[in-house]
Amino acid sequence: MNNSLTIIKVRGIKIRLHISWLLVLAILTYALATNFYPMRYDFDTVTNWLLGGASAILLFVSVLIHELAHSIIAQKHKLGVRSITLFFFGGLANIESDPEKPLAEFRISIGGPLASLGLGIFFYILYIANLGEYFTPLFDYLSKVNFILAIFNMIPAFPLDGGRIFRSILWAYMEDLKKATRIASNSGKIFGSLLVALGIVLFPAGMWFILLGLFLMFLAESGYKQVLIKFALDKINIKDLVHERPLINPDWTLDEFLRWCRKENVLAGITIKNGEYFKIDLNNLPPLNKKTTEPQLVKSIMTKVNPIKTEDYEPFQLFKEMQNNNISIMPVVENDQYIGVISTEAINKFIKIESIQELLPDTLKSKTTIQSNGS
Ligand SMILES: [Zn+2]
Fold first, then answer.
1. How far is the CA of 273 from the centre of ligand 1 (A)?
2. Ligand 1 centre and the CA of 108: distance in Å?
3. pTM of the model as a whole
4. Fewest C-beta in 10 Å: which of 48, 100, 236, 315?
5. Is the sign of the CA dihedral 317, 322, 323, 329 positive or negative?
6. Which strand (E) or helix (H) includes residue 120?
């Protein structure tokens, strides 16, 4: 997620705060300090705010521990975990790839709710230990929200943890990840729409339910799409995605480059200078100097890029990396020779064609082959 700040690293995992997290921290503290605590206890204003702030921060620490539980189990299953981001709706562990086996998915998914359950019990013990008039309400609140987190996450609505657990069981039983994901994703969409409906009934207080419901529906759909994309891309070789594209001349003026783009019907070009690769991408152009009357040269606005070696990547992995880093084009080399480019546009076209072909009955389907010309 962009707009995030890395605050600490745990077991190689970057812990990041998204800008929206500050907003929800402020809203939560405010709601607790002006509503939740004053309605239940007789503290003065300062105490209410201190309790509100401490509760909100410890809630996010709890969410972080929940995400760390997922992440550490994922690492045990040899899956890379880049970061955990705390944002508006809670926490999100960025696990590099999906587990290959249902059992791994089951373990990774159940780890989070179990951690929340453990935290709920831990704070409950602190609550009944009666450590003082200020701590008791704090631990009461924290034990309750952790129990709620554990229960909410266990709802079998993909991509919530419970939905992933549900998918892993279907997957093990049906031995068909695509079908299992479709069913789990539908349950996610149904649950999301129920949340939206509940939010409408409780409006305006239900606003948060509406947002959360819509967010879940979106995630359920995109989670299913990701699986379809993975299946489509797993069928092919990285070289199938390479399209020939002539190299451009770094001494061209910008105007000459634009003319070339028009002729080739493309938005980006690659050039090699002193053995290094550079690209100029109209989707991602550095700010142009509009004041100068001198012609601007391609070499003054091109950016350095590391070419892809065909043997280094699987197509799906490359697609995700380009998507996550907002890269639209990459040069490709084979045996140190430039052979063409891979563009997200070309990958998206391939995925679109595959998704339509999926709809054809099996008897009318041809085997997947793609031609490497044009893009
Ligand atoms: Zn979770």
1. 47
2. 9
3. 0.77
4. 100
5. negative
6. helix 102-128
